[in-house]
């Protein structure tokens, strides 16, 4: 895949998310924008990969691992309620496998990869301020734990909006704490795998994308 300069994916991400907010909140075409959400989600995954300076085996491996883990855990959750709780997906997210849209696997990859990228960058900034060396194990687990907390927070931010837009629904209308516990544990496992794969190329677009999507869901959470 050709490497895309950061400004191109950033422009497209901002354009699509601002257009989405305006379309959902302020136009009579709300349903059209909602039902075209899968296109935006798929595009963001493609832009994230295109922003990677080098598509290495580690990056591909992590994508496959995150996608498969997301799909498998969600299939278990939807069909048993053991993970996450009792919930079902609507038709907005597109084609499904055993009740889970394929785009959910992509969503897991995007969120976890972006959270990991942000935590790695923050760690570098913090480490530059300390003269004494810090053990690698502490750095690694800081990225894993802090990244998992961030991913769980992102899900908390997204949940009410996703429910209102018909992405998924919870039995009884209440989001169980089990959902957030599973998000934390699964995200932490994936972030630990990401650390082991040692993906070398820095992806600054991933950080921008996480912020853009957070602002997107925050805007809809406040005004929808």
Structure at a glance:
The chain is mainly alpha-helical and 224 residues long. 71% of the residues lie in helices and 4% in strands. The protein has one domain (7-223).
Architecture overview:
The structure is a single chain. This protein has helices at about 5-25, 30-35, 35-50, 55-80, 100-125, 135-165, 175-195, 205-224; strands spanning about 85-90, 95, 100, 170. With about 220 residues, it is mainly alpha-helical. It has one domain (about 5-224). The strands form 2 sheets. It has a two-stranded antiparallel sheet. The protein has a two-stranded antiparallel sheet with strand order 2-3. α4 (about 55-80) packs antiparallel against α7, α5 crosses α6 (about 135-165) and α6 (about 135-165) packs across α7. The chain is globular and about 55 Å long.
């Amino acid at each position: 895949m050709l490497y895309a300069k950061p400004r191109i994916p950033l422009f497209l991400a901002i354009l699509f998310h601002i257009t989405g907010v305006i379309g959902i909140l302020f136009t009579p075409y709300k349903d059209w924008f909602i039902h075209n959400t899968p296109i935006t989600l798929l595009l963001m995954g493609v832009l994230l990969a295109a922003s990677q300076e080098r598509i290495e085996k580690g990056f591909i491996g992590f994508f496959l691992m995150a996608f498969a883990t997301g799909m498998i855990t969600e299939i278990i959750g939807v069909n048993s309620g053991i993970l996450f709780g009792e919930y079902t997906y609507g038709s907005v997210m597109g084609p499904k496998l055993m009740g889970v849209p394929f785009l959910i696997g992509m969503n897991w990859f995007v969120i976890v990869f972006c959270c990991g990228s942000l935590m790695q960058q923050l760690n570098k900034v913090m480490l530059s301020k300390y003269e004494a060396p810090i053990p690698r194990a502490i750095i690694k687990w800081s990225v894993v734990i802090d990244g998992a907390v961030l991913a769980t927070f992102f899900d908390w931010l997204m949940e009410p909006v996703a429910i209102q837009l018909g992405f998924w629904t919870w039995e009884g209308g209440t989001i169980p704490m089990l959902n957030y516990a599973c998000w934390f544990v699964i995200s932490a496992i994936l972030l630990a795998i990401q650390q082991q794969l040692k993906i070398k190329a820095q992806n600054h677009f991933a950080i921008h994308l996480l912020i853009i999507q957070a602002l997107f869901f925050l805007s809809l959470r406040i005004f929808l």
